Amino acid sequence: MMGERIERSGGRTFRGRRAALIEFRCWRPVAWTAFVLAAASCAQAAEPAAASGTSCADLQSLLIPDVTITASTQVGAGSFTPQETGQEYAVPEFCRVVGVARPTPDSAIGFEVWIPTASAWNGRFQGVGTGGYDGSINYRDLARALDRGYAVASTDMGHTGGSLAFGIGAPERIVDWAYRAIHVTTDVAKLIVRNHMGRWPDYSYFVGCSSGGHQALSEAQRFPADYDGIVVGDPGADRVHQTAAYLWSWLALHDDDGAPLVTQSDLRLLTQSAIAACDGDDGVEDGVIDDPRRCGFDPASLTCAGDKTASCLTAVQVDAVNKVYAGTHNPRTGEEIFPGWSFGSEAFGEDNSRGWERFLVSPERPMRSEVFGDFLFNDPNWDWRNFDFDQDVAYADAAIGYMAAVDHDLRAFRDGGGKMVMYTGWADPIAAAQDIVKYYEGVVGEMGGVAETQAFFKFYLAPGMGHCRGGYGPNSFDMLTVVEHWVEDGVAPNEVIASMSIDVSSERTRPLCPYPEAARWSGVGSTDDAQNFACATVGQ
Amino acid sequence: MTPKWPCSLGCVIAIGAALVAPGQAGATGAGTSCADLAALAIPGVTVTSATLIADGAFTPESSSPRFEPTPLPAFCRVIAIATPTDDSIINFQVWIPPAEAWNGKFQGVGNQGFQGAPNYRFMSAALHAGYATASTDTGHVGGGLDFAAGHPEKIVDWAHRSIHVITEHAKLMVRAHTGRWPAYSYFNGCNTGGHQALMEAQLYPDDYDGIIAAVPANNRLNEIIGYLGVWRATHDADGNSLLSHDDLQLVTQSAVAMCDADDGVVDGVIDDPRLCSFDPASLICSGRASATCLSRQQVDAVKRVYGGVHNSRTGALIFSGWPIGSEGYGPTTREGWNGMINIPQPRRSEFFNHFVFNDPNWDWRTMDADRDVDYATETMGFVSAIDPDLSAFRDHGGKLIMYAGWVDAILPAGDVIGYFDRVVAAMGPEAVEDFFRFYMVPGVAHCSGGPGTPVIDMVPALERWVEQGEVPHRVIASRVEDGETVRTRPLCPYPQVARWSGEGDTDDASNFTCESQP
After folding, report:
1. CB contact, 8 Å: A201 with chain B?
2. pTM score, whole prediction
3. Are A512 and A498 within 8 A, CB to CB?
């Protein structure tokens, strides 16, 4: 934490003698009297005083350019149910500010800022991300952050509802969704917090997973001064190519009539067989593939000798899944457009439905293919079957490449003192883990090496974890505390302990390790206890 | 924009037209009649009225202090509104003398404070002198700062766009009415007008051939932060003022008593307060408090105002201190620091409500001199005209004269000196000498007043520089009491100062020379 600092310096003096200086004496002068009182009074004066800022109700009269505050209300502690969702949240007392930002005439960026009482405030600001193409405020994360003492903000990203139709004929709204809404909301929210609390937040953090992870990387790349610390989870950052990969994988897993080529039990067979082949690679038999890249499993080994049964795959099926593992490629140049999904991501969890079934197989059309129809070709009748993985991808990169947050140059964020922690699940069926690895390695290349990158940006791969949470490996951890400790106390994270999420009957804990290291069992003690593991560089 | 002809031919013709043959070159009939100017369809401009005013028929209302309205000579009065953005409403007036009275030149005039009103005082003076002239309300009406609330484009209009826009429109109207472009264009402004003058030189270097930036409040944002710091430094914990005007007068009188003669002339004026060794601690009461002494707390407050306002964390100077001699330099309460101390809240602190935090309820007591200053600089830094690179203006052929007064209690001299020093550092002393002269005036206050020689007219010197290439050196200023000139004194280009020859009347400028200070 920043303490109260008293500094004096020279400055303009009139010749012949030392002149006194006017200065604002406290690092954080909440009471105006701190200015004229002696230094000793600063500590007293720095106690937050509720009266120093604009009252919650009066925040509605703010006249921030391009922003309308539609409501500002003090909400009592207890249960809070936003009309928008009908969902109930337990909350401490807070000031709820609801507004709309219009950075362009076409924009309508809904946002909410929730500010705890002065005594409950931890002095920090948190921006929270959203999921998918969701056009709604993330109330769940607002309530969580508020409960931990943060002033917190969320945005609907500039549209309402989960459909992509908002982008049709509205290019500025696509930009709002792609990166502007978070930045604008952050700026406005900080100012609102400043006006209500009488001082700026000491630190600002962004926390997001999936699309929220995309937003997190976008902030670090485009608006490096917005946040002191950023938590990036399972980022859908390589958005354009990822969407092409959904299309590629869908085509691979369906026949020409659009009928699925694989069933849920086929996918489960693949996961089980891959685990059986590679579980022991890391020296621990725990039902989890530690690093699918090193797994020597070959789906062709499951090819039926005779008729198709539950324990084998047809040659057509093997071909289909191999296309998904191999990833999306340019048919002309052979260049990789998007890496493949990993062994172990095919089918897991409840009814084995977590995995490819839900995202790549059962949808009637490729997931998010409207991105191309609505955002790129501006044609409601565009037929995704015609997608050209050479020229159409090139056109998409040129026309809507800004939707992706894949800039490897994070110098501005680093130079501003920013710290970032990224994590992703190896079994993630949505944001393919190998794409996140590819991004991180790109940053390592750009920033001059692993050590140079780890000085401000660490990456954790969680074996057996799904998309943002869940899965069959340890998937519960607190990266926000980790990044706060790094930002505020200068303590760089090393291993981060993950446990199984509460709905799984397992006591297992395991360290997550900063990439490229991985957790290795010491050979002694329980393999369900993190303390018997250490982070180590794993040789080929 | 004023067309720039090659001087070998065009300037001669232009000067000839302006100086030799007024009334012939611009004969009525050469241009559009005054009444028909109402039909001008300039994009972004609505002409409200265009009226020929007869000699003596119009007396401008008083729009600034110390302006005694007098009837004007005949002129064509154009009233118009410029709307460069949807949010803009820039009212302006253009006054054009009849052909026989026109000196062939245009003079744009600056404003005072945040005042949203045309500057009739300066317009009247310009019209009397034969100029076509223009002035604007800078895009808002009235002296309040709340015009900015929720209107970012109006802030830009106030900060720099209005003067530029009306300059272009006014020149076009002069062209339409007189049938020719002004041969030369000048800008003349004091205080906010000086701020506008430097904005023109920095952002719109082709607008004017010659610019007078008097007492420029160009470091506007930091100046306002400075007012806040001064207020806090001169009040106790309960918000009670530590310094009355009487206290401040005592300080000035004591300082003058000690340092008046430092320059060899006893004239009630400290020539260069930086050299004055007065220490207010010498006024600390030895026994009981009295009207002729100060408490230690008061002395500390005075010293803080001398020392300037600094960033709380880095110690970096935010705004210069106020000089010795400016504390209470005259008997009225407006003469000195009183006007920024003995007021209910810091001068211009509404700026932070309406321009920076967009919150009418924002409490200036919460202002901190680190992050709030950073935020204000990031969001509103553009209202300050502090770019030291004036090479575009120089390359245009522009000439700039700036001056400031040593006892100015509104805008401390140190800030103006600081800007000049930065220009010299950025462009080099030789380059600056070619186009930019700066005069520090002893004993002169804010645009007028003070115990020195406050009657200053830089226009003739600037015109000779622009039109005839005659480089200004000493400029004679005077002191007028009851309509009589009681003293003349040369002003000297900074860093030179006027030195008495040791012989003759010290109230006569001819007994002074400009010399470098040892």
Report:
1. no
2. 0.87
3. yes
